[in-house]
């Protein structure tokens, strides 16, 4: 051996002592540990009783594998294994090795990097991911993960597949637009504009099932950010609220509409007249309130039964609607009483013309299950601003006029006039 070579060898051996990693010299054939640096001795707790690499490995068969790879390739770049320290502690490490030949044997120079903390964090992350996945797999709530930039679906859970009636692979091929109803596309665009700045939000969307059926869902959107805080993807929790919405609509309908005739009831009518009065105050003009009470309706019930009476009331409702403009309101106040609000008229004669029209429309025979019947009505008219400015007074005065029509012989209208005035009754 040249003197320079042995000096260099000596220097390298010294450097290995100073290296910030544990370094071992191992017999490549049998794995016995021939030399170590100080750090290896200290951190691995090596002693004379740890003569071979396999004694360090938690799983000795992995030690054999490691030696085999090193011998065959001449090096090992990264080999993850768990080592058993003298203190009994088990740590995850990354081994690297290089084969070197000396005169009488093949040596492996092995370095060891401690990756225990990183491994534990990775394992904890993996476990937490598995836990979350299991929760999402078992959840009744639909879940979708999608790319923040392209909107492409990245992941869905079985509940969402079931909700939208798609197999998972097919659903993952669709864009959000493919399952969102046309009416809800605007809501999606609005949400999209905001999700880079304030992604957490809750909103309702109409979704289309594979069967074509439309459902209403509540979406809770949250952002997934990368290490720079950039929003990379979004996840949506999807709840089917179709039944709840239908119920709410039904409750709302029952609160404001008459179920027999589908006309606005007295509560909705009160809102309509308030609105019309406010509008009149702003833009001027005149409006008329017509109180309509059917004549001798009780007889219809008596002769054709309550069901027959109901059919008649529905028919009357349709005929009344047919006599006015879309901007007017026809409402059923209860029993055989209806109120018509003419939102914008020039003078009393406009209201009188509509009253005539109603009397003519109602006088057409009505076919009931038990036979044909003729019905008439008495109508009282009050005008704003001529007779009153507020809804209760207008209603009261139209009611008075309607009773005048009844007492005047029925099947007529009366336009309200002050008590002293001559009554304007028409037959
Ligand atoms: N079929 C049916 N009848 C109803 C309903 N609500 C009230 N009624 C009946 O409507 C009738 C109303 O009669 P009234 O307005 O008091 O009297 P009328 O026979 O019309 O006589 P005049 O008003 O004096 O012309 C009563 O017999 C009520 O029982 C309903 O929803 N359906």
UniProtKB/TrEMBL annotation:
What EC number(s) is this enzyme filed under?
2.7.7.65
Outline the extent of the PAC domain.
77-127, 201-253
Residue intervals of the PAS domain:
128-172
InterPro entries attached to this UniProt entry = DGC-Regulatory_Protein, GGDEF_dom, Nucleotide_cyclase, PAC, PAS, PAS-assoc_C, PAS-like_dom_sf, PAS_fold
> Locate the GGDEF domain: which residues?
285-418
Q: Where is the signal peptide?
A: none
GO MF, any single term:
diguanylate cyclase activity
Q: Which UniProt keywords apply?
A: Nucleotidyltransferase, Transferase
State one Pfam family annotation: PAS
Name listed for the protein in its UniProt record: Diguanylate cyclase domain-containing protein
